[in-house]
Design brief:
Layout: H1 2-24, E1 47-56, E2 63-73, E3 78-82, H2 89-96, E4 104-109, E5 112-113, H3 119-129, E6 130-134, H4 145-156, H5 161-174, H6 190-202, E7 208-212, H7 220-237, E8 241-244, H8 248-251, E9 256-261, E10 264-270, H9 274-293
Length: 294
């Protein structure tokens, strides 16, 4: 039952985002760009989890997806999250991003406690203060590239249309898509579509960008280009990125790598080579495989 509720919650959030996105371009309303930024949150952690647990089911059938996560991630940092299948990394991202509700514990984003928020408040927070990059891009095919980038700003409301267009043009130039704002997603390659998704995630200057396997659908060369853009967003724009990945090469772009196992943070590495990350993953999973083989 818990798994079904969580899945419905995530699907509902995504459907609401896409449905509202189509509605947002039925008029010429105002965008959410604020040229002054969000100085009230300076000095606070971008992401903070305290004693976060997530359980599904009841009794003997209970699944302990997260068993007590304590974590604080500073602003302007790039964190990769890795772990074997069933380790809790997807549940971690969903709880940290307000897409799922922890069974126990506290989640704060940009200094704001989100654990007790109702769905309407969470929706507003996700629109204005969080960015998302998905493996499948999730661009709306009926909108132009510029309209897709501006979608979070249009949903949040406020600001001027001119400021929004200027912001979109700047971000599209940064991700290598200058002059392509009037194209439709179908006219772009997979790598270009993911570049649009990154620009969209950054457009509101969010507290955190959550990336779920952002290079999973890309070839090696294109994946490296996309990771370079994420790295640049941290280094030049001061963005904060939390990325779930299974790829050691992707994790090597991050400032630190967290390794989850059995719902706990089992290990962590400062920025390291892909080979070092892969070796640590092998060491983390080898006991489990050995036990299974025995």
């Amino acid at each position: 039952m818990g798994l079904r509720r969580s899945r419905r919650r995530r699907e509902s959030a995504q459907a609401a985002y896409e449905g509202a996105g189509r509605a947002a371009y039925d008029d010429t309303g105002r965008t959410a760009y604020d040229d002054t930024g969000r100085t009230a949150y300076e000095g606070t952690a971008a992401v903070e989890l305290r004693g976060v647990r997530r359980e599904y089911g009841r009794g003997a059938a209970t699944v302990h997806a997260l068993r007590g996560i304590d974590l604080s991630l500073p602003r302007g940092s790039f964190t990769a999250v890795m772990g074997p299948s069933g380790s809790g990394k997807s549940t971690f991202l969903q709880c940290a991003a307000g897409l799922d509700v922890p069974t126990a514990g506290s989640v704060r984003l940009g200094g704001t406690e989100i654990t007790g928020m109702n769905e309407n408040a969470l929706t507003e927070l996700r629109r204005s203060r969080l960015g998302f990059v998905f493996q499948a891009f999730n661009l709306l095919p009926s909108l132009t590239v510029e309209q897709n980038v501006l979608l979070p700003m249009r949903l949040a409301g406020g600001g001027s249309a001119r400021q929004g267009r200027d912001r979109a043009a700047d971000l599209l130039a940064r991700v290598g898509l200058e002059g392509k704002g009037r194209r439709r997603p179908a006219e772009l390659s997979g790598g270009q579509q993911q570049r649009v998704a990154i620009a969209r995630a950054l457009v509101t200057r969010p507290d955190v960008v959550f990336a779920d396997e952002p290079t999973g659908a890309l070839d090696t060369t294109t994946a490296a280009e996309v990771l370079g853009l994420l790295r640049s967003a941290v280094d030049t724009l001061g963005a904060t990125i939390v990325m779930v990945t299974h790829d050691p090469a992707a994790a090597a772009s991050a400032d630190q790598v967290l390794f989850l196992a059995d719902g706990l943070i089992a290990d962590r590495l400062p920025r390291s080579s892909a080979a070092t990350v892969a070796a640590r993953m092998t060491a983390l999973t080898a006991p489990a495989y050995a036990g299974a083989a025995a």
